[in-house]
Amino acid sequence: MYSINMCRNEHHEACVCCSKPIRAGHPFITCKKCDCIMHKKCKTTSNIIKFREQTYCSNCIELYDIIRYNPLYQPPHLSRNEFLGDEPLEYVESLDTISQILESCRQYSF
């Protein structure tokens, strides 16, 4: 007869909202920037914000100035040909370049 030893020392992440452990099978949400984790039931519109297909915690939104204006941004799931199909390739590439620059800009205060 064989004996199987099961490891009972499981490490569980703690929810940043309620500080209770998040166990296997619990639905959860993570921040794209800092990887903090919370139960899905603890999510509110003030502690998790979805911006450009990603979820961010309110701390990262404030600290890293994630929400920014970029009129040229196109979500990755949209093909640029849907809107710019008749435009010259150089024009489309320049819009992509400008959009990437706007996405990378940091806000400075004086």
Properties at a glance:
110 residues; alpha+beta; two-stranded antiparallel ribbon; 6 strands; 25% helix; disordered N terminus
Structural write-up:
The protein has 110 residues and is of the alpha+beta class. Helices cover 25% and strands 16% of the residues. It has 3 helices and 6 strands; from the N terminus they run ββββββααα. It has helices at residues 58-64, 81-84, 89-104, and strands spanning 13-14, 21-22, 28-30, 37-39, 48-51, 54-57. The strands form 3 sheets. It has a two-stranded antiparallel ribbon with strand order 1-2. A two-stranded antiparallel ribbon has the order 3-4. β5 (48-51) and β6 form a beta hairpin. The longest helix has 16 residues, at 89-104. The radius of gyration is 21 Å and the shape is elongated. 6% of the residues are buried. The model is unreliable at 1-10 (pLDDT under 50).
In the sheet with the most strands, the strands line up as 1-2
N-to-C order of helices and strands: EEEEEEHHH
Number of DSSP strands?
6
Approximate shape: elongated
Count of alpha and pi helical runs: 3
% residues in beta strands: 15-25%
| Overall helicity | 10-25%
The secondary-structure class comes to: alpha+beta
Q: In angstroms, what is the radius of gyration?
A: 21 Å
Q: pLDDT below 50 for ≥5 consecutive residues: which ranges? A: 1-10
Q: For the residues shown, what is the average pLDDT?
A: 78
**Biggest pleated sheet:** 2 strands, antiparallel
| Straight-line distance between termini | 74 Å
